[in-house]
Design brief:
The complex is a heterodimer of chains A (about 325) and B (about 325).
Chain A lengths: L7 H9 L8 H8 L11 E7 L2 E10 L3 E8 L10 E3 L1 H4 L5 E3 L5 E4 L3 E7 L2 H8 L14 E3 L10 H16 L16 H5 L4 H8 L3 H9 L6 H11 L3 H5 L7 H8 L4 H11 L3 H17 L9 H8 L9
Antiparallel strand pairs in A: 1-2, 1-7, 2-3, 3-5, 3-6, 4-5, 4-8
Helix pairs in contact in A: 7-9, 12-13, 13-14
Chain B lengths: L3 H8 L4 H14 L14 H26 L3 H23 L1 H14 L3 E3 L10 E3 L11 H10 L20 H15 L5 H11 L13 H6 L19 H11 L2 H6 L6 H8 L3 H19 L5 H11 L6
Antiparallel strand pairs in B: 1-2
Classes of the chains: A alpha+beta (about 325), B mainly alpha (about 325).
Chain lengths: ~325, ~325
């Protein structure tokens, strides 16, 4: 559609609604700084997403690698008796929004994508403890209880069901394998059994010492290498990937922080892979870097990721 | 070429690409809503009118939602489709009464049981039972809805088509409901009031149709009956068990499989192999259908329980 084909009513309409630039990516960066600089705080409103699911979440509580949050919707208009409707005066959004506190739950931090607003502490406290609000108690100005969905015949029950689908799907966003105390990873050598080492070296285009490290599990196996090994040995890629070394919890939590989200998305796009694999590859690089260094204290995983991913955006922070 | 998402991010509001995306999604989604289809069928101008109405009503909320929530073109398309569909549902509920009114006028006009009040008499143009001369009705419309709800032996046409509008009910059932309503009124009633009562009694008339979007969905709906397969027995006086058996016979195989799980969305998801929202939609339609068929008489509950007994869950 060329500009000359655009109807006048549409141009007039667009002309009356030009005050939302602060919610574009560049506008949000102006307001909140670079994504890599942002720290998680209660009351923040985040865009969250995975695959084609995208949902707003207001953070009510922070945990290790996860957040307790409620989904928030703006359009289509819908509400239920377990939630609250907030006027623009208390959200900073141009239109009213519904907070579905009935769907409050823990989400992995890796689902968080972009910070879009920050709400007041009073408002956040109310939303975090809706049960503490008596039915007759006064709510903050601009906040009201949601109206009940009268029957299953009301199509708003379907809007709610669709949101619940999205929330469920977000909660299932795959994470990286995490080391647990006392657990031992299966080595690649154990998975492969008798193996033609020369053929493996040729297929992986690696010298024998490097392949031996992979077999013994002293060097991390990347998903790409797992695919090559599966093809060469005839063993399923799933079994080969079973030998992927679990990551230290601190590294996984650092990589799951939303400050790294754009790095993983960009890396996945560049490598033609998905976000989980891009995150796994990047973490394995950082892990390999740490393995070469001495010292008994817990590494600064953010710094390791920054060094391993230099040039990919991680150096911004 | 810039995408709709990139354009939205650059402008901070909808531009020509976003408009084109809305037009495309609207022309797909509006076909799910036979209740608002113009008599002459959908025309290009209708899409433009709907798009303009939609954007004029929802522009600010829609732009805010997409700017804050969409992550890329895929999620923008998904979010936009959801908003358009829900707006069309609202529109169908508000403005889709014309079809029901036309249907009702035709049924009343063709039946010898009803007549229009002649010109010059109180309530001229209103409908009443034939050969009566009562005054125009002026009571509580909820009484008329209760009278309509009390009519139980509703027969319903098959929903075999995924592209034509869902039938309200069979002609003799519409006549039975009209008879009950006008008897309860005890006088003549405006067609607009009658239409409202019928829409309360038959909410599915304004519902959106299940239009398959992919092969998987087409397969799932393949077992819906065709009109030719539908055979509805005449039965003037039936007891609960008989009514239940008749109702069970009017359900499609898929609906019968769903009946035992009307209160269990997860089980319904397993039966239908679909997402929660789709399962809700199918459950809602089935409940509406059962309500239409069973009415709201004293034995309605017993009838529906009997239908559930007649449609046991498959044994593992």
């Amino acid at each position: 559609m060329s500009d000359s084909d655009v109807p006048k009513w549409f141009l007039d309409l667009a002309g009356r609604n030009t005050g939302m630039r602060s919610f574009t990516e560049s506008g949000l960066r102006d307001r909140f700084g670079e994504p890599s600089e942002i720290n998680l705080e209660r009351g923040q409103l985040w865009r969250a997403g995975w695959a084609d699911v995208a949902v707003l979440l207001v953070l009510l509580e922070l945990g290790d690698g996860e957040v307790r949050a409620s989904p928030v919707t703006i359009d289509p208009p819908a509400e239920d008796e377990n939630g609250f409707v907030l006027a623009p005066t208390c959200t900073g959004l141009p239109t009213s929004a519904t907070v579905w506190t009935g769907f409050t739950r823990f989400f992995p931090q890796r689902v968080l994508d972009t910070l879009v607003a920050a709400w007041s502490a009073d408002l956040t406290t109310c939303l975090a403890n809706p049960a503490s609000l008596d039915p007759g108690s006064r709510l903050p100005v601009g906040m009201r209880r949601g109206r009940p969905i009268d029957s299953e015949f009301d199509h708003r029950s379907m809007i709610r069901a669709g949101l619940e689908d999205d929330v469920d799907q977000l909660g299932q966003m795959p994470g990286l394998p995490v080391e647990s105390p006392g657990s031992s990873s299966t080595t690649l050598a154990a998975v492969l059994g008798d193996v033609d080492l020369a053929a493996l070296c040729a297929a992986l285009k690696l010298p024998q010492p490097a392949v031996m490290k992979l077999l013994r599990g002293t060097a991390p196996l990347t998903p790409a290498q797992a695919a090559v090994i599966a093809q060469t040995t005839g063993i399923s890629q799933e079994r080969v990937l079973g030998a992927v070394r679990s990551m230290p919890r601190g590294l996984v939590q650092a990589a799951d922080h939303p400050r790294w989200r754009q790095v993983w998305i960009t890396r996945a796009r560049r490598l033609g892979t998905d976000e989980t694999q891009a995150r796994l590859d990047g973490c394995q690089q950082a892990f390999a870097l740490a393995a070469r260094q001495t010292g008994g204290s817990e590494p600064d995983w953010d710094a390791r990721l920054q060094r391993a991913l230099f040039g990919e955006g991680g150096e911004l922070r | 070429m810039i995408t709709a998402f990139a354009e939205l991010q650059r402008l901070g509001h909808f531009g020509p690409e976003a408009l084109r995306l809305v037009q495309g999604l609207m022309s797909e989604e509006m076909r799910r809503f036979p209740a608002i289809e113009p008599a002459a069928g959908w025309q290009r101008a209708d899409v433009e009118d709907l798009v303009q109405d939609f954007l004029e009503q929802r522009f600010a909320a829609l732009t805010t939602m997409l700017l804050t929530t969409a992550r890329n073109d895929e999620s923008m398309g998904r979010l936009l489709r959801r908003s358009i569909r829900n707006w069309l549902i609202d529109r169908a509920r508000k403005t889709g009464t014309g079809r029901v009114r036309q249907l009702l006028e035709r049924v009343l006009g063709e039946s010898t049981e009803f007549e229009q009040v002649p010109p010059g008499q109180p309530g001229a143009g209103q409908w009443r039972l034939a050969r009566t001369s009562s005054e125009p009705w002026s009571g509580d419309h909820r009484e008329l809805i209760r009278a309509a709800d009390a009519v139980r032996d509703i027969r319903i046409g098959p929903w075999s088509s995924t592209t034509r509008r869902a039938p309200v009910a069979a002609r003799d059932s519409l006549i039975a409901v009209a008879r009950a309503v006008l008897s309860a009124a005890g006088g003549s009633v405006e067609i607009a009031q009658l239409t409202h009562v019928f829409l309360m009694r038959f909410p599915v008339a304004l519902d959106w149709a299940v239009v398959p979007l992919d092969a998987g969905e087409t397969e799932r709906h393949a077992d819906v009956r065709t009109p030719e397969e539908q055979s509805i027995a005449e039965c003037d006086e039936i007891d609960s068990a008989g009514g239940a058996a008749e109702i069970a016979g009017m359900l499609t195989p898929q609906e019968r499989a769903l009946v035992p799980h009307l209160d269990d969305v997860e089980a319904a998801q397993r039966v239908l192999s679909c997402r929660r929202s789709s399962a809700y939609h199918q459950m809602k339609r089935l409940r509406e259908k059962l309500t239409q068929l069973a009415g709201v008489g004293d034995d309605r509950h017993a009838v529906i329980l009997e239908v559930i007994r007649l449609c046991p869950p498959p044994s593992d």
